Amino acid sequence: MTIDTILQIITIASAVLMIASILLQQRGATLGAGFGSSGELYTTRRGIDRNLFEVSVVFAAIFVLAIVVGLLLPSK
């Protein structure tokens, strides 16, 4: 297995896991928020919501890092 194949697998896996972690986050937006009138207060992330946010940030960093490394490696 070459380094290019490993980087492609890492990129695809991190993309799928990042999408899943983003979709699992609760949003709490109401119908009025879609039209610009949100009556929500700013709250801090707690518990599982905070963990999912941090996991999605880590997956995004891995995704970007794998792409940058793939671009910097000389191709055959």
Automatic annotation (TrEMBL):
<dbReference type="GO" id="GO:0015450">
    <property type="term" value="F:protein-transporting ATPase activity"/>
</dbReference>
<keyword id="KW-0811">Translocation</keyword>
<keyword id="KW-0812">Transmembrane</keyword>
<dbReference type="GO" id="GO:0005886">
    <property type="term" value="C:plasma membrane"/>
</dbReference>
<dbReference type="InterPro" id="IPR004692">
    <property type="entry name" value="SecG"/>
</dbReference>
<keyword id="KW-0653">Protein transport</keyword>
<keyword id="KW-0472">Membrane</keyword>
<comment type="similarity">
    <text>Belongs to the SecG family.</text>
</comment>
<feature type="transmembrane region" description="Helical">
    <location>
        <begin position="52"/>
        <end position="73"/>
    </location>
</feature>
<keyword id="KW-1133">Transmembrane helix</keyword>
<keyword id="KW-0813">Transport</keyword>
<keyword id="KW-1003">Cell membrane</keyword>
<dbReference type="Pfam" id="PF03840">
    <property type="entry name" value="SecG"/>
</dbReference>
<comment type="function">
    <text>Involved in protein export. Participates in an early event of protein translocation.</text>
</comment>
<protein>
    <recommendedName>
        <fullName>Protein-export membrane protein SecG</fullName>
    </recommendedName>
</protein>
<feature type="transmembrane region" description="Helical">
    <location>
        <begin position="6"/>
        <end position="24"/>
    </location>
</feature>
<dbReference type="GO" id="GO:0009306">
    <property type="term" value="P:protein secretion"/>
</dbReference>
